[in-house]
Write a structure and sequence with these properties.
Elements lengths: L11 E4 L1 H11 L1 H16 L11 E4 L4 E8 L3 E9 L13 E7 L5 E6 L1 H19 L6 E5 L5 H12 L3 E5 L3 H12 L8 E4 L3 H5 L4 E4 L6 E5 L9 E4 L8 E3 L1 H6 L1 E4 L2 H7 L12 E2 H5 L13 E4 L4 H17 L4 E3 L13 H4 L7 H6 L2 H4 L8
Parallel strand pairs: 1-6, 7-8, 7-10, 8-9, 10-12, 11-13, 12-16, 14-15, 14-16
Antiparallel strand pairs: 1-17, 2-3, 3-4, 4-5, 5-6
Length: 377
Amino acid sequence: MHNPLISTSPITHFLSAQDVSALIKRMGLQRCLQGMAAAITRDFLRWEAFDKSARVASHCKNGVIELMPTADAQTFSFKYVNGHPQNTSRGLPTVMAFGVLADMATGRPLLISELTLTTAIRTAATSVIAAKALARPDSQVMALIGNGAQSEFQALAFHHLMGIEEVRLFDTDSQATAKLMRNLQSNPHAKNLRVKACLSTGEAVLGADIVTTITADKANARIITPDMVEPGVHINAVGGDCPGKTEIHPDVLRMASVFVEYEPQTRIEGDLQQMPADFAVTELWRVLAGKTTGRNHQRQITLFDSVGFALEDFSALSYLYETALAQQQVQHLDLIPYLDDPKDLYQLIRHSPLAVTAANVAAMPAANRYCTDLSPA
Ligand SMILES: NC(=O)c1ccc[n+]([C@@H]2O[C@H](COP(=O)([O-])OP(=O)(O)OC[C@H]3O[C@@H](n4cnc5c(N)ncnc54)[C@H](O)[C@@H]3O)[C@@H](O)[C@H]2O)c1
């Protein structure tokens, strides 16, 4: 099969926010979540094939901007993402992102894509991958603490991919909970999902099989405390993902078996930042690859300390790109100039450069085209 990721076309493709939202609407969120989860699992099982590093972060009082690179032998990716919990009061999302795929052999950018919506889907897919490996398989009820931008995707991923039948919601902002209730209750694909608003985290968590925390507050919050934790529960801790930003009381981590994406990054950013450097954790890929066990017994407390790792964005970008190319739904971006003599960059200011569009590339002399894939815009 033709692999779009190693095509030699000089064209850089572009997926805008509208393109990605249309793509997901066409295929349906459930299918997209399934495809994304399969792509992330596939890449976690190739863990050793990737260059890995903790992300680079620039902090300010209100938030953080992060760059998340990774690469295998063929393809490089990075994501730009921010986290500014006070943004919503200024009319901006807390989390905004875009990303790039590039060809390792030449360094040529293949794709620039929106990743704000995509991040919510890939994060929800990753949560379910972890929960399938760690939660009790008979789990039916999930508490969802934090009902902002990410929360619908978590609720629907757990319903569609894990069979969760009831979600219990709590947010310090009751309007966020009302928004989540509305969105879930009006979703024709989630008719069998029971949705209950709660008045406190304690009420939402009581008797839940899975607890997902996905709040945003740049503070050392302790939303889940030891008195709330029942035997056998799986905690999916997603919102503590930056130094000085936590959700889980350290004693809860002591009660649990703790699983992480990439240990060096989670030690800095996760709820794990509260624990000593020798506190034992297991990387999730080892469980997925069968190198170690996840849950050992019904009463074990498991905790996935999710911070978001570059590999998940590599998988998400690759999956989006393959899907969009197969549907011939990508735009061409005139990003890298076409040069009839690649040593003559000066030609670009000597005369108007040829825009790198499908039509122009087709018209180029074959010898200069270095091009095999001309997917229509
Ligand atoms: N781990 C990952 O891979 C990953 C990926 C994406 C986002 N995140 C994190 O997830 C969190 C949520 O992101 P979002 O885009 O939904 O943000 P958002 O601002 O849209 O929503 C966050 C919600 O948390 C609520 N909240 C804050 N403190 C709370 C508390 N103590 N108890 C209950 N609710 C509380 C807020 O009222 C808000 O409604 C952020 O912290 C973000 O950094 C993590």
